[in-house]
Amino acid sequence: MKSVKKFFQYDNIGLLFVLPAFLYMLVFVGYPIIDNIILSFQNVTVKNLVSGSRDFVGLKNYFDIFKDQVFIKALWNTLFFTVSCLVIQFIIGFGLALFFCKNFKFAKAVRGLLMMPWMIPITVTALIFKFIFGTDVGILNYILQSFGLIQQNIEWLTTANTAMFAIICANIWIGIPFNMILISTGLTTIPKELYESASIDGSGKLNTFIKITLPLLKPTIESVLILGFIYTFKVFDLVYVMTSGGPVNSTHMLSTYSYKLSFEMFKYSKGSAVANVLLVILLVISILYLRTTTKEEDA
Amino acid sequence: MDDDKKLTGKTNIIFCIISILLLCLLLFPLFWIIVTSLKTEQEIFQIPPTLIPDTLNLKSYAAQVKSGDFNMFSSFANSLVISFGAMAVAVVLSVPASYGIAKYRFQGRKLMLLGFMVTQMLPVSVLLTPMFIMFKNMHVYNTPLAAILADATIGIPFSVLILKNYFASIPRELEEAAYIDGCNRFTAFVRVLIPIAKPGVMVCAIFSFLYAWGDLAYGMTFIIDQQKRPITAGIFNFMGQYGTKWSYLTAFAVVTIIPVALIFIFMQKYIISGMTSGAVKG
Amino acid sequence: MKLKKVAALSLATVMVAGMLAGCGNSPAAEESTGAAEQTGAEGEETASAEGDVTIWYYWENEGHQKALDELIKGYNDSQDEVAVQAKYVPFADFKKQLSIGASADELPDLVILDNPDHASYASMGIFADITGKFDVSSYYDGPVASCTLDEKLYGVPFGSNCLGLYYNEDMLNEAGCTVPTTWDELKETAEKLSTDSVSGLAFCSLQNEEGTFNFMPWVWSTGATSYEMNTENGVKALTFVKDLVDSGAMSKECINWTQGDVMNQFISGNAAMMINGPWQIATMREEAPDLKWNVALIPKDAQNASALGGENYAVIAGGNEEGALKFLEYATSDEQVNFMMNTMGYISADKSIAETQFADDPIMKVFVEEMQYAQARGPLPEWPDVSDAISLAFNEVMTGSATPEEAAATAQSTIDEIVQ
Questions:
Q1: What is the tens place of the pLDDT at every residue in B208-251?
Q2: How far is A85 from chain C (nearest CA, A)?
Q3: A53-71: pLDDT as tens digits
Q4: Which of A265, C176, C295, C316 is the most buried (most CB within 10 A)?
Q5: CB contact under 8 A, A275 and B125
Q6: Does the beta-carbon distance from C99 to A263 stay under 8 Å?
Q7: What is the pTM of this model?
Q8: Closest among B57, A46, B111 to C382, alpha carbons compared
Q9: C-alpha dist (Å) from residue C215 to A4, B141, C32, C271
Q10: Neighbour tally for A160: CB within 10 Å
Q11: Does C399 touch chain A if contact means CB atoms closer than 8 Å?
């Protein structure tokens, strides 16, 4: 009985540690979430934003956007973009993390320098890649031509598929250091003794990697992927600056389309509905993630 | 799992060469804009492109110093204030929170974890208006505090999710040893656990700083006075003003990058040493 | 169990939010009642006109900013009742900031905004009705129409501009071309002028309002209105633009170029002709003093047409209306208008001023001539929707993702939903 009481006391102290941060987020982001949900069930447009009655229209906005070609395109784009970026940047980032945990002379310095792409404001990154992918001015076309890979300059940012490719490249460039540094940090938490005993047991490198590194790195990998997913899924600045969703809406993401509806076309409620679709998808992914991780913890 | 044994001889050299190649490949875009910023507008369009500028052109840099009412130095200072502020808020709140989540099984824990994840999922477009109204009511609209408070909301959930793994990997015995030494839960947290989790805390601090540093939407929306805005707003204006005048644009980009790079290289000593010292061991 | 938690959580959020909103609102409410009492006690007009007037504007052009600063300084020095200050909000952010400001009730007292957006904000109810307070009878019809909604005047035209055809004289002479006046001539000339590194013609074709602004002259020149895309004439305009791109006379990159970018292409010799406005002239002369260029009317199909650009002043309802109006009276006086228009390279929206404004400037004279053919976009509160449909259409056509007929049909169905 006593121990049960103690258990509760102990765990409730945890709440005190968490509460300040939680309340902070509740106030600054919780309220906008609620506000946005309400907005998406109303019919707020330019005419009744400030004055006039806001009628509740139920699911109308949601029905409308699912009939909207651009929305469907944006939804697909967002998924395609996220998955491509996530897979590629994770693999490269993981590779680099493994490479740089070897103790050679330049390891620390070079790994540090490789963080650079991540610290540059995204607005600037977008600008850099816009320049590199330029049709006439871009270095990429020149390189490809001089290797004889293409005959004519590719109009990267003015053709639907290649524009998407350019945006994915830019995002991967940002994402590689993010993955590398978090996985590197995760690798340091693996006790060296485990590797030592593994090598005594005579297991090979690949075997050690699969049997020891991966399982012990699982929590890190999971957070890297889920965080990566969330940040990639709501990508905004990069697309907004590089293509603004063009050409012909071919690179619109849910976030940029929602922004366009709300702030360029004055369709506030529709913009909210689009944002909510984004939110729901991320919510589902997060719940799945929490399911798997908490199961492990409970086990 | 940093190998303790130093690589020597041939292997060391091979690894060094590979790492330099990787560096050149991955940082080429940066090299390229620095070179471009030193070229004249004509040379930029020249084919074949020059790897080193034929004629050194510093006009693009000079143009920024005297550009309009936008002051690069003050906007840089604004960005620093905002980023350090947001970093402080994020670290102070998220370090205890992640510890609480990692080490205690209180009721509603999973829900709170979910809460932290949900809060970082909203696209900016829906956050701007409600946040704006809140900041106005709190009388912080058009002050750096508005941007600080908003930017911290990006860093907090991120830090909580990253740091909780750190705290979870610290063995309970360490904590219990602290209790035997006469610490209570809070002093044990401050004196024993935070120092052990230092590399994680540093990573979170740096990421929170950089999230705030890179923010454009908040700084631009919640601060209306040009002279109070962060440097990203400056680039954005510049892009509107000069479109595809690449010599100017790349020069501005370089100016935004260099100072951060310096800060970063300075701080990097701490992160990398934290990461590689293997402070967290079983 | 879980549902309960979620419900409790949302409830808590609403409560916290409510508290925040509540505690913020009450002092504001007190303030306003306090102010009302004061006004009552001190008498009517003087009290409310006193104080600050904040202006929002979006010109990133340094010359424009300086001109506005000087105008404001002149006014502030001339009296000590009202202190005016201007705040720059980037164009790309201007609409957003106004929308958010409207929701949060945090707006300036006066804005200088792009004329096609005027009707939207007027219908939002954030602009003061100033019918009868300004005499706009000597102004051009287009600019006045853009300030008017439901026969009420919600603003005063600031100044106008329109698009014209710029051409590189040396390139035309070398190729032995004359200045094109019709579509056929334009197409032929542009094709002749195109080489590997030079495109014959360039105009901004961004998929936004700026692109629509540059595309509309082609539509209007056929005789179609903005709302008649899926007609023989609408399709004709789309086909014309498509042919320009397909024949290589115009670079597809135009869909990523702002008007500023187009101007840069022109002065660096990458484009032989361009459609652009007079506000570029000062920069062009400064940046490329040796370039020989000239201006002509936009080549026509059935009739001359150009798009009306420019800004309007609008007084925010509920702000310092009296103060804003006093400043406007000063700013719209002949002397000030002349100063602003000449410094900025704008054409006065006031006909009587415009006609004498550029007596000895042959280039600006062309734009003044073009002004009489310039049509306004809208005015319609839903213009952003219409514009979006049109800009999508020409982008589809230029990138080859739809035929002119298909694009016109899609655009028309969107337009028909808005305009009955």
A1: 888 898 888 899 889 988 888 898 888 887 777 776 678 888 88
A2: 24
A3: 888 999 999 999 999 999 9
A4: C316
A5: yes
A6: yes
A7: 0.85
A8: A46
A9: 75, 39, 47, 18
A10: 17
A11: yes
List the domain boundaries for chain B. Answer: 67-276
Instruction: Say if residue C44's pLDDT is above 70.
Output: no
Residues of A in contact with C402 (CB under 8 A): 248
Name which of C3, C52, C257, C264 to mutate to probe chain B: the one with the most chain B Cβ atoms within 10 A of its Cβ: C264
Q: Give chain A positions within 8 Å (CB) of B49.
A: 139, 142
Please list the residues that pair with C52 across neighbouring strands.
Answer: C83
Tokens representing residue C387 in the block: 């514009």
* Assigned architecture for domain C164-297+382-418: 3-Layer(aba) Sandwich (3.40)
Rounded-to-integer distance, Cα C241 and Cα C225, Å: 17
Structure tokens at A265: 């076309």
Judge whether C26 is closer than 8 Å to chain A, CB to CB. no
User: Which residues of A fall within a CB distance of 8 Å from B152?
Assistant: 24
For chain C, the domains span 50-160+309-374, 164-297+382-418
Judge whether C50-160+309-374 and C164-297+382-418 match in fold: yes
Q: Has domain C50-160+309-374 been given CATH number 3.60.40.10?
A: no
Residue with tokens 């100017």: B248
Domains of chain A with bracketed CATH: 54-298 (1.10.3720.10)
**What mean pLDDT, rounded, does chain C reach?**
86
- The chains found to touch A (3+ Cβ pairs under 8 angstroms) are B, C
Tell me: pLDDT of A150 over 90: no
Kindly state whether A124 is in contact with chain B, defined as any CB-CB distance less than 8 angstroms. Answer: yes
Tokens of C56: 């929002």
Q: SS3 helix, strand, coil % of chain A, rounded to 5?
A: 75, 0, 25
Domain B67-276 has CATH 1.10.3720.10: yes
What residues of chain C lie within 8 A of the CB of A34, using their CB?
10, 13-14, 17
Select the residue from A37, A188, A221 to test the B interface by mutation, using most B Cβ atoms within 10 A: A188
Please tell me which of the candidates A21, A101, A182 has its beta carbon nearest to residue B97. Answer: A21
DSSP single-letter state for residue C279: G
Q: What part of B 203-242 touches A (C-beta under 8 Å)?
A: 203, 210, 213-217, 231-232, 235-236, 239
Q: Do A264 and C207 touch (CB under 8 A)?
A: no
Q: Give me the residue label for tokens 């121990």.
A: A3
Which residues lie below 8 Å from residue A4, measured CB to CB, with a gap of 6+? none
Which residue of chain C is at minimal alpha-carbon distance from B133?
C104
> Taking 60 as the threshold, does the pLDDT of residue C41 lie above it?
no
* Confidence tier at B207 by pLDDT (50, 70, 90): confident
